[in-house]
Amino acid sequence: MHSFELRFEQEDTIEPYLQEVARTELRESEENIRNGLEQLKQLIRQEENFYIPLDDEIYLMAFLRSCKFYPDSAFGRMRSLFKFKTKYPQYCANLLPSEERNVFVSNMFTVIPYRDQHGRRVLIAETGDKWNTKEVSLTEIYKCLQMILEAAMVEPRTQIAGCIMVVDMKGLNGNHIWQFSPGFAKLVLDWQQVCSNR
């Protein structure tokens, strides 16, 4: 029996060069962090039927950093993400590695243990030769990708530097192409909207 564990960085030690990126590109400062967290928490409290753990500040910082510490924009992105998850429960609900063993057994996704020269997290997706469509569905692939990205999202360094994904399509064939339904294409378009929403 195999066991699988996603391990990401939890320490909040950020190298000086990334601190400078955060300051110059993301408007990060002690004042913006303090005010941003306070205002974002207030917006969350005011939203009916919106349950976010207010004490998980690293999670809240993911939205603030992605929106350059503008609380209204961060809250808008947060709402868009949760509306998306509500709209597509079959892809977004109950995301647990133990429930998506097929993808992990297939070794289609690799998170490189070292960051690139810009401090970015690197993910390799091998969606050709390693994808046996009889064993791993497109839904399972998307769920796995969501889990990896959500885990990386709470890494302070990734919040600042970002991440990149390399997609290796060697061996992609008609069996793979037929997995992409119009409904899945709509999901991807909606997901892009969430990612680009500011």
Description:
With 198 residues, the protein is mainly alpha-helical. The chain has two domains: 16-86; 94-196, 3-Layer(aba) Sandwich (Phosphatidylinositol Transfer Protein Sec14p), CATH 3.40.525.10. The protein is built from ten helices and three strands; from the N terminus they run ααααααββααβαα. The chain has helices spanning 16-26, 30-46, 57-66, 71-87, 89-92, 101-106, 138-153, 156-161, 174-177, 182-196; strands spanning 109-111, 121-126, 163-168. It has a three-stranded mixed beta sheet. The radius of gyration is 18 Å and the shape is globular.
Salient structural properties:
single chain, 198 residues, mainly alpha, Phosphatidylinositol Transfer Protein Sec14p, 2 domains, three-stranded mixed beta sheet, 10 helices, CRAL-TRIO_dom_sf
CATH level-4 homologous superfamily of the largest domain: CRAL-TRIO lipid binding domain
Q: What integer is the average pLDDT?
A: 88
Major sheet description = 3 strands, mixed
User: If classified by CATH, what would the architecture of the largest domain be?
Assistant: 3-Layer(aba) Sandwich
CATH topology of the largest domain: Phosphatidylinositol Transfer Protein Sec14p
GO molecular function, one term: phosphatidylinositol bisphosphate binding
Domain CRAL-TRIO: 109-193
Pfam family, one: CRAL_TRIO
GO cellular component, one term: membrane
